[in-house]
Amino acid sequence: MSSLYPSTRRIARAFGTLMLLFAGHAAAYVSVGSGCQYNDLQAAIDAQSTTGTYELHVRAGYVSGPISYNNKSIWIFGGYPSCDAPSPIPYTGLNFSDLSEIDGSRNSGRPAISVSGNSRLALHNFNVHGADNGSGNGGGIAYNGSGDHSFLAIASSIINNNKAGRGAGVFYRSTSNNALMSLEDYSWIESNTASISGGGIRLEGTVHLTALGNPASIDNNVANPNSSDGSGGGLQMRDNTTANIGSPGNSGFAYINVNKARVGGGVSVENNAVLNLYTAVPGQLARIENNQAAAGAGVYLSGEGGAPTFCMVGGGINFNATTVGGNGSAIQVNGGNAHVYADDIASACPGTLDGFANCTAGQPCNTITNNVSDRQNTATININEGSSAGVYLRHVLLASNFGGNLMYSSTSTDPQLSDCVITGNDFANSLVTTAHATLGVVQCSIAGNHLASGVKVFRESGTVFSLYDSIIWEPQNPTLGGSGHSVRDVIASDAGEWNPADFVQFFNAFNADPLFVNAGAGDLHLQDGSPAVDASPTGTQYDLDNHPRGIDVVQAAGSPNLGLFDLGAYEVQHIDVSIPVTFPPVETFDELGPAGTLPANWQNVSSHPESVWVLANDQVDSGMYSAFAPDARNANDATLTTTPFHVVHGGQVSFRQRVGLEAADNVTAYDGARLEIQIGNDTEFREVTEAGGQIVQGGYDHVIAQGVGNALPGAGVWSGDVPYSSVLVALPHAANGQDVKLRWRVVTDQNNGWAGYWLDSIQVAPDDGQTDPDDNIFQNGFDP
């Protein structure tokens, strides 16, 4: 029973009041199996009342036929080694014999598990298999809920090899308030077959699914491709259902993987349903891969009679394929007000993304790669119908796809691409073909694609394009044709042939080689000295690597130097070393005001790209500027690290700080700041007192709380609401005669934030008189 508790806490965070369901969870239980209180699972269920919540402990290896109940709340936990064992045998994904079983083949023509009315079910450590419900609803589990707080949770269980008309693995219908479903760790929905639709899972009504299990998968399910419906090989969503999918999958394989259908091989999103695909484990995208369908092999949206939404924030649609003659190998949009979003911030998606983890610096936030469709009039992303449909893709890598086009729009919708890389694709036609629409391309890098000879990169049919702050470098193909387009701050391989009179807007378009690192290998980062560096006065906030934009750098001879923002998807991060470096070793953050950056060669790292250290002028100790780290509203670890400097005997550092970090009281903190040091050849940073130093004045005043998602539980920190005050630190004896780095570290929990942490007036003493220019990390001023 204890292994279910993490799932309970996770769900409660997502849905708030759901914990009330568990408040009446009785300590007593009923045992089922040989020698236990009940030999028969159905008999044990029948004996329970329709009031209260009941817990059944089922012995490992026990096999039951199909079960059913109405208007009851029952937790069915299998895998117990004996009738009175305190906990089940932990399921590792391999020890199948330790599971309990429900074998649907023992009574064919019905679901293996039938739940109805005002009921709830938690299933743990079970294998549910072998059911054949013909053309009916639900093979493994059929859940028809009608009461408030309908609830289905599956953990450490396999739902496999079941058949039904709809929802062969799981069918869940509920129109009640707060109808919830959760797929937890070691939950497998696999190898189920639907004769009509919903091979793995079908959701109807108002059900809200959260899938964060790790490992877990919806794998190898089929919705009959020959059916007139045939929707949703892995998952079919109808009505007003929602699915929050953040699971990274299983052993490197995608969460929704190798499913087949007529439409929506991975997922079919219909009516007013909402699919959110996002990262819940840092650095591991939630992915839909290796699925197959005639339309929408990855994701299919049908907006007829509604406005379905697919939102991706840390997700991937990769390696999917359409059948012969099919379309939309990654995404197919059909009709109505269907909308597709890709972005790097959770607020881009509808609702709350439980367990959301920010995109990781150094890798794309979203990927649409290696999807395959026919060579002719097909597309990786096909917008087929719907005058109000929309596709808005930001922070996305679109690479190594194969077919007719990358994107084809036959509607009046206006698709948009931003902060994107398009490379390594192989298409028989143009990259993008639109009709009756305006395509917007902002801060994208497009190069290294194989297109049919002579076709335009962007092909219009009664439409125009807006290209801003981008690089389109396809020397074998014209970028665009016709007239009425808008271009601003663009590098294009054929820009020298453009006639400004043909454009509605034409500014700063040129054809200088952008100097990619390696376009042939798909690396479209910019080399130092690229003419795309600092070539625009405007830009987005973060690049495709989730690094900040607007970084001023030293310009190569002949580069335009028209602003702080680089063209294309990536921003060169080398700070302009022409910013003055002065001595003595004092940093007041004042001389950097004109540049708007922190000191040259200081390292500024954050696990959340929107909560990095910045130069601030709202709270200062002296002069005009200070360094500031915001108190993030989610788990974050932001560090500001000096360049190395030499320490002589008796070295000290002093600084002034303004603290506005969330604390529970005068002792316990949720968020906090501390000072760390790296000495000589050490590879790790240590907290300065743990390294042998002493905080002589202004020591830590709080301790980080346990269990709040902060990276440093139990650590001493500065926290609370404290005006500017002085801190004096005697550096460790081990630092004498060594080069050291100092690191100010601000760590926050996963919930609310306050204001932040300001740092100013840093001074190191004594000065050894031997500091070379590289050691001059503490600089006077940042003031203009």
UniProtKB/TrEMBL annotation:
Domain of life: Bacteria
Keywords: Signal
UniProt keyword Oxidoreductase present: no
Signal peptide (residue range): 1-28
Region (Disordered): 765-784
SUPFAM superfamilies (alphabetical): Pectin lyase-like
This protein's record includes keyword Signal: yes
InterPro entries: Pectin_lyase_fold/virulence
Designated name of the protein: Parallel beta helix pectate lyase-like protein
